[in-house]
């Protein structure tokens, strides 16, 4: 009998928890997310961003795009690390966006990298995505 009573009380508390959860203030939403994670450099990821990141994750770093990239012939890797590095590193580590200090204008926009990609990763769009995200001011 005590076991049934304990199960009943547990169920009642669980039910009350879920009934009052939607009405609690200050623990949900973008503001609460930013309060919790801003100092770690995280921003909320929209559904559109998640879809883009899923498309970029098709890159398995084969290096074909690097061999087709004209700026890698002209510039050292410290100045422009190449499309494969940018796509595999920065689209999988979003907290690193504020610390990206690269000159994205070195990319000539020739799309040779996309043409040489065996998985059809939209590399030019990935570079534009990374550039846009690295320009976002993070809350302190």
Question: What key attributes describe this structure?
Answer:
140 residues; mainly alpha; Fumarate Reductase Iron-sulfur Protein, Chain B, domain 2; 2 domains; 8 helices; 51% helix; elongated
Task: Characterise the protein shown here.
The chain is mainly alpha-helical. It is 51% helix and 0% strand. The chain is built from eight helices and no strands. Helix 6 packs across helix 8. The radius of gyration is 23 Å and the shape is elongated. The N and C termini lie far apart (55 Å).
Give the secondary structure arrangement, pairings included:
Blueprint (H helix, E strand, L loop, with lengths): L1 H19 L8 H9 L9 H10 L7 H4 L2 H5 L8 H8 L21 H5 L6 H12 L6
Q: H/E element string?
A: HHHHHHHH
Q: How many distinct helices? A: 8
Count up the domains: 2
Main beta sheet: strand number and arrangement?
A: none
CATH class of the largest domain: Mainly Alpha
CATH topology of the largest domain: Fumarate Reductase Iron-sulfur Protein, Chain B, domain 2
Task: Using the CA coordinates, give the radius of gyration.
Answer: 23 Å
Q: Kindly report the name of the CATH homologous superfamily of the largest domain.
A: Alpha-helical ferredoxin
- Known CATH architecture of the largest domain: Orthogonal Bundle
Structural class: mainly alpha
Question: Judging from the principal axes of the Cα atoms, what is the shape?
Answer: elongated
Mean pLDDT across residues: 82
Distance between the termini: 55 Å
Question: How many runs of DSSP E, i.e. beta strands?
Answer: 0
């Amino acid at each position: 009998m005590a076991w049934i009573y304990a199960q009943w009380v547990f169920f009642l508390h669980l039910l009350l928890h879920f009934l009052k959860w939607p009405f609690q203030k200050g623990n949900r939403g973008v503001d609460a997310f930013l309060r919790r994670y801003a100092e770690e450099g995280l921003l909320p990821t929209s559904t559109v961003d998640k879809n883009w990141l899923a498309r970029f994750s098709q890159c398995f770093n084969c290096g074909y795009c690097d061999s087709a990239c004209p700026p890698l012939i002209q510039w050292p890797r410290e100045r422009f690390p190449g499309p494969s590095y940018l796509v595999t590193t920065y689209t999988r580590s979003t907290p690193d966006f504020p610390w990206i200090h690269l000159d994205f204008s070195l990319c000539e926009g020739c799309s040779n990298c996309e043409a040489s990609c065996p998985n059809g990763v939209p590399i030019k769009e990935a570079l534009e995505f990374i550039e846009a995200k690295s320009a976002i001011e993070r809350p302190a």
